[in-house]
Amino acid sequence: MAQAKSEKKATGYDKYVNWKLFIIPVILFAAILVMPTPDGMKRVGTQYSVGPKIVVDFICNELFQQNSSDVEQWQMVTAQMMERNMRMGALTQDRFLKRNAKWCKKYKIQASSTNVDRAKEFVKSTMSPEQFNSIMKASFDLRIKKLKYDELKGSDKKSADKGAWHIKVAIAMVVFVVFCFMTECIPLPGVAFCIGLILVFTGVVTRKQVAMYYWSDACWFIMGSLMFAAAFVKTGVDKRMCMMMFKKLAVPNVRWITLIFFLIITPLAAFISDHALAAMFLPIGMLLYQNSLTDEIPEDKELAKMLMIAIAMACNIGGPGAPSGGARNVIMMTYLTDMFGFDIGYFQWVTYCFPFIIIMIPITWIAVNTLFKPRIKSLAPAMQHLEAEIGKMGKWNRNQIWAVIIFVVMVWGWFTEKIFYNMGIYPVRLGIGVIAVAGAVAYLLAGVVNWRDYHEKVDWGVVWLYAGAIIFGRTLDSTGAAYYLADSVVSFLAPFGMDHGLPLMLTSNGLTAVLTNLMADGPAAAAVGPICLNMAGIVHPGTTFLPFMAMSTAVASSFAYCLIIGTPPNAIVYASGYLEPKDYLRVGVPMWFIANIVIILVTAVYWSWRGFGALPGF
């Protein structure tokens, strides 16, 4: 009876629009759009919309003594590949020579394998690494420093104005979306649809583009993971997994249960997808809560929130531990290598960054147990109830065995699909989202579930919510709005002495940590990384500050604690129906500040004491 009472969907979905609140973000959005366009927006709009064309033309004149309109196809491919590398911070000849036709296709450079090979041969045979690097740096200076909005004319000026308009829309959208998420003045899946509508109505994307953006691989993963969680719950596999994890506890107190979550999930998140870990542990957390309720306490919202938040936070703090913990880590490693020639090895990264997550585990565990005050302290009744239910189940049945087999195959696919694709074993790149949905379909084919199970037990609002988050983050990245915000903050703080040493690192970390709550961690690191690494290279050239800046920026991009859209684990646990947006802020805001302080202390104490290779300290 108590369990039946506890099964309720997210109350936010039952609300209607609160116009007294909703009118505020609407007015703010409109006010930003009608305000005069700042010079900074025009400058970044010029760099993003006109810069690529100007740089390609510059490279063609440098290499082939012709304008881009007059060169041969392979020569155009050469210039376009160099321009794209320049935008990514990959300024070395070695990095250019590793590109191939697949890379060109990914970045929408029309090039056959023959033309790519010819371009690489030309660069290798006619230029030394120093000459290549010189042209790339000149291209970078042209785009960032010499390209002026006021000097543009005709179509170039129109393109720059359009680029500045896109940035303004993106900034206005940030204000609109964050306000809506924090106040729930409109149902959250509705905000996800508003994002797409805003971008189409303002001309930032086309109607075809917006449809493609919504259904990304990450969105497919969220959908597939919630589907296999539903299969686990229906078959009772979640009960068996829960007992395997917690039956050895002498005192199954909620504090020790959450500690086990942190001790198991957090280290694994450094090596395994945090998406997968959140999806694996969500049904376990829900099961523990539902079986802890009694006739005396038929509902304990604080306990439910505590268990769900513990799973999400355990996933979030583990990512920096190893390069495989997220794309952000690899992005910053690549930037450091390409821009300054410093390499951080896999094991070396682990020895620097794992201490951070070791420190964060007890701090985050204490914070979660302090900020949430459940009435139910002991989960012993839940464990006894589970044991009785499993006893009734008897031995593993057919559906349970199939549920585990399909799940193991999915996890294997998540671990190996990228490696096997690079080795040529898989002819196409599958992606974790396609594998997750394939697993959900496999459950249907095996008779483990029917569609009614997915229809009723999957929170489809969360799927659309994260789909909106994907397009939101992509827009901040592609329009240059994220770069504009990062550059504006760094430029503003420079006169206050925040442009060198630990203050610069604190600025970079804080800025990255803000952006990563609004967009994916990879784009956040990609937006802030080049700016701060370049500043670090100017004020602390050839010192330990450079690799420290790269690692700290990657770590800070994992601080997506505050918003549902900040990271997939946040969105996945929101599907439980027990959380509200303010619950993320409740624990996320203090942990955001604590995490920024911890990484600075780790840098100042442990990293500085240890040093980095033969580099002098800063």
Task: Give short descriptive properties of this protein.
single chain, 618 residues, mainly alpha, 30 helices, globular, disordered N terminus
SSE string, helices as H and strands as E: HHHHHHHHHHHHHHHHHHHHHHHHHHHHHH
The largest β sheet comes out as:
none
Q: With helices defined by DSSP (H or I, 4 residues minimum), what is the helix count?
A: 30
> What proportion of the residues form beta strands (DSSP E)?
under 5%
Strand count: 0
User: What general form does the structure show?
Assistant: globular
Q: Give the class from helix and strand content and strand pairing.
A: mainly alpha
- Low-pLDDT segments, ≥5 res: 1-10
Work out the radius of gyration: 25 Å
Helix content: over 70%
> How far apart are the termini?
64 Å
Output mean pLDDT.
Answer: 87
Q: How would you sum up this structure, described in words?
A:
There is one protein chain. By secondary structure, this protein is mainly alpha-helical. Among the domains are: 39-165; 460-563 and 582-610, no CATH class. It contains 30 helices and no strands. It has helices at 2-6, 19-34, 39-49, 51-64, 73-87, 93-97, 101-106, 113-126, 129-146, 154-183, 188-201, 207-214, 217-235, 237-246, 254-269, 274-290, 301-318, 327-340, 346-371, 380-393, 398-423, 432-445, 451-457, 460-479, 481-493, 501-515, 521-539, 545-556, 568-574, 581-610. Helix 17 (301-318) runs antiparallel to helix 29. The longest helix is centred in the N-terminal third of the chain and has 30 residues, at 154-183. The radius of gyration is 25 Å and the shape is globular. Keywords: Membrane, Transmembrane, Transmembrane helix. It is a multi-pass membrane protein.
